[in-house]
């Protein structure tokens, strides 16, 4: 079993501290949801975990900030090294890369991810193509995506489908989904949730889903829910906490932690 452990994480951007000691632990196959009002630090948490250079990790007092994956400290690693260790970030707004086909991008990403696992590599491009087509069929993704430029001309829903395909190809130990439901209609949300659950069941991936709303969590059924307010986790619980938040909102939690 793999473990992603976040301890006393403090992070700042432009000399303003946003995260004030976030601690949580995600294990293989678990689905954790992080919810909270606008400006609470949810996307900062995702970017910091992934290694975005604009976010500076600092220590909180006499306690060191730490993020480990199976005991290996990630904060000392570059974003690509974190990805190779098995960490994946699904962007809220995936970028377009004109001229680079989805197939070529995923093949290079796959080779980098499994550079030390020769049994998972494909000697020929056609072999990888067949593997990719099989995954596209399994996850109900249009195979025509594979020959298109990366996210080039893709709708919001298509970009999110491609993020799912990337997860299926890279088999991350842990995936951070940063507001993956943003801008999606209900059918697209159901499809994303269904495919995320399939990846959890197939690969044992641990999921940290960051969202404002209950709707995607109705289908993902998180094991744990954490409420982030002003850069701190102020409440944690099981799936029932989602319903409680939907009914009461964040006002009382924000006022109690002002």
How many angstroms separate the termini?
Answer: 38 Å
DSSP strand count = 13
Query: In what range is the share of β-strand residues?
Result: 25-35%
SSE sequence, one letter per element: EEEHEEEHEEHHEHEHEHEEHH
Q: What coarse outline follows from CA principal-axis ratios?
A: globular
Mean pLDDT: 90
| Helix/strand/pairing category | alpha/beta
The spatial strand order of the largest sheet comes to 7-10-11-3-12-13
Instruction: Figure out the total of helices.
Output: 9
Report low-confidence residues grouped into runs of 5 or more. none
Instruction: Give Rg in angstroms.
Output: 18 Å
Q: Let me know the largest β-sheet.
A: 6 strands, mixed
Q: Any overview of this molecule?
A:
The chain has 258 residues and is an alpha/beta fold. 37% of the residues lie in helices and 27% in strands. It is built from 9 helices and 13 strands. The chain has helices at 42-50, 79-85, 102-113, 125-138, 156-170, 186-203, 215-220, 240-248, 251-256, and strands spanning 3-13, 16-27, 31-35, 56-58, 66-69, 72-73, 87-90, 97-101, 149-150, 174-178, 206-210, 224-229, 232-237. The strands form 3 sheets. A 6-stranded mixed beta sheet has the order 7-10-11-3-12-13, with helices on both faces. A hairpin with a 2-residue loop joins strand 1 and strand 2 (16-27). It is globular and about 55 Å long. The mean pLDDT is 90.
């Amino acid at each position: 079993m793999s473990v992603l452990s976040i301890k006393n994480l403090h992070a700042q951007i432009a000399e303003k501290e946003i995260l004030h000691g976030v601690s949580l632990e995600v294990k293989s196959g678990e689905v954790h949801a992080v919810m909270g009002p606008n400006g609470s630090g949810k996307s900062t948490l995702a970017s910091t975990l992934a290694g975005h250079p604009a976010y500076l990790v600092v220590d909180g007092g006499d306690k060191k900030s730490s993020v480990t994956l199976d005991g290996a400290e990630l904060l000392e690693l570059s974003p690509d090294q974190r990805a190779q260790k098995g960490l994946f970030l699904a962007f809220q707004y995936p970028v377009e890369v004109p001229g680079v086909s989805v197939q070529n991008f995923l093949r290079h990403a796959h080779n980098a991810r499994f550079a030390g696992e020769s049994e998972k590599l494909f000697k020929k491009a056609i072999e990888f193509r067949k593997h990719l087509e099989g995954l596209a069929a399994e996850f109900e993704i249009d195979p025509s995506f594979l020959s298109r430029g990366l996210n080039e001309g893709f709708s919001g829903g298509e970009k999110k489908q491609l993020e799912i395909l990337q997860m299926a190809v890279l088999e991350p130990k842990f995936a951070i989904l940063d507001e993956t439901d943003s801008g999606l209609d209900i059918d697209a949300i159901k499809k994303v949730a269904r495919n995320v659950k399939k990846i959890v069941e197939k690969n044992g991936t641990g999921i940290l889903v960051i969202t404002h709303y209950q709707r995607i969590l109705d289908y993902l059924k998180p094991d744990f829910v954490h409420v982030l307010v002003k850069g701190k986790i102020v409440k944690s619980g099981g799936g029932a906490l989602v319903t409680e938040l939907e009914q009461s909102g964040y006002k009382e939690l924000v006022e109690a932690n002002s």
